[in-house]
From TrEMBL:
Pfam family, one: Abhydrolase_1
Keyword Membrane among record annotations: no
Phylogenetic classification of the source organism: Bacteria, Pseudomonadati, Planctomycetota, Planctomycetia, Pirellulales
Record PANTHER family: AB HYDROLASE-1 DOMAIN-CONTAINING PROTEIN, HYDROLASE-RELATED
GO MF term (any one): haloalkane dehalogenase activity
Domain AB hydrolase-1 intervals: 85-329
Protein name: Haloalkane dehalogenase
Its EC number(s): 3.8.1.5
Record gene name: dhaA_2
Keywords on record: Hydrolase
């Protein structure tokens, strides 16, 4: 078969409908050579358009990256188109960006999602307490430099647990960068620390002795980690053992207990900053979504309600689950976030 005839056979069997749609002509009524030329032009056009569409289509594939900040390797997860609105996800204790492993792809089709691991957590560097000052001021300083290094100029912040004192420090330092807040069991009010869980930790703030510190090491055991994930949930069978299976080996690394004790102590620096954070909320009025696990014994719902005092643009949801609300209600939180962000953040 001649080459031209082979092309003609392909054209008459595979292309006519395309040509009909694109050109409004019946290819079969055209001279062979003209039809072949026209079909090849159309095919080339479709190929180019298809390639461009593929390049522009947002992807939910999660990339695992590392960047140097002050000599430290800061690991982070990233997904979504970089020209889309950015979400900065700040994790809690004792986990890492791992807690967002399911949320990131659920949001990444429309948003640029970035979730770093703090020093001492996840896959980031974990220098000893002699090599790095583990305070919330310092964590916020590193994460602030991280946002600049990876080019985050404006973003919404997901504040959870330790993510609240890190994120509020960022917000107060650069309010012009913060578009919205998503608060999930992240405290900024004294009412949120008025429960039994905090009593031994508050004692450590007042008297930082080895004895007081040793009394807190029970919070770093496997049983305590499992409790954080399972307490207050509706159905414990929905909570994957992969959660504590990921976290506990990191807590058990040599020297990591001392890192966590240093941060337990440093958490005492946060309540004195609450008035400053509350003033930020009143002055700047960032649109805020609260999605709070109401059965949390660490940050109970008593810490969620006071946000209503200071925020005019607040969407408020208490969820029937525990501390790590994403584990049981991740799909619901993702939906609430998408609806909230679609209204509040320009694409």
């Amino acid at each position: 078969m001649k080459r031209a005839d082979a092309i003609w056979l392909f054209v008459t069997h595979s292309v006519p409908s395309v040509v009909h749609i694109e050109l409004g002509k019946n290819i079969m009524s055209m001279p062979k050579n003209a039809a072949i030329a026209m079909a090849l032009i159309v095919l080339a056009s479709f190929s180019l358009n298809s390639s461009a569409a593929e390049r522009e289509t947002p992807t939910s594939q999660v990339l695992h990256r590392t960047v140097k900040i002050d000599g430290l390797d800061i690991a982070y997860r990233e997904a979504g188109p970089k020209n889309a609105p950015t979400l900065l996800l700040l994790h809690g204790f004792p986990t890492s960006s791992h807690m967002f492993r399911n949320l990131i792809p659920a949001l990444a089709e429309k948003y640029h999602v970035v979730a770093p691991d703090y020093p001492g957590f996840g896959n980031s560097s974990a220098p000893s307490v002699k090599e790095f000052d583990y305070t919330f001021d310092n964590l916020a300083n590193v994460i602030g430099k991280f946002t600049e290094k990876v080019g985050l100029k404006k973003y919404s912040i997901y504040l959870m647990d330790y993510g609240a004192p890190v994120g509020f420090r960022l917000a107060v330092s650069h309010p012009e960068r913060v578009q919205t807040l998503i608060v999930q069991n992240g405290n900024a009010y004294d009412e949120g620390l008025d429960n039994d869980f905090w009593k031994p930790i508050k004692a450590y703030w007042k008297d930082r002795t080895d004895a007081q510190g040793d009394g807190l090491r029970s919070l770093l055991t496997l049983d305590a980690t499992k409790w954080q994930y399972t307490h207050g949930v509706r159905n414990v069978e929905t909570i994957s053992p992969d959660t504590w299976g990921h976290v506990q080996p990191l807590l058990d690394r040599p020297g990591n207990q001392e890192i966590q004790l240093a941060l337990f102590y440093s958490y005492g620096s946060n309540p004195s900053l609450y008035p400053q954070w509350q003033e930020y909320l009143r002055k700047h009025q960032p649109p805020t979504l609260i999605v709070w696990g109401q059965n949390d014994a660490i940050f109970p719902a008593a810490g969620a309600h006071p946000y209503k005092r200071d925020l005019k643009h607040l969407e408020f949801h208490l969820l029937d689950t525990g501390h790590f609300a994403l584990e049981e209600d991740g799909a619901e939180i993702a939906t609430l976030m998408r609806n909230f962000l679609d209204k509040q953040v320009k694409q």
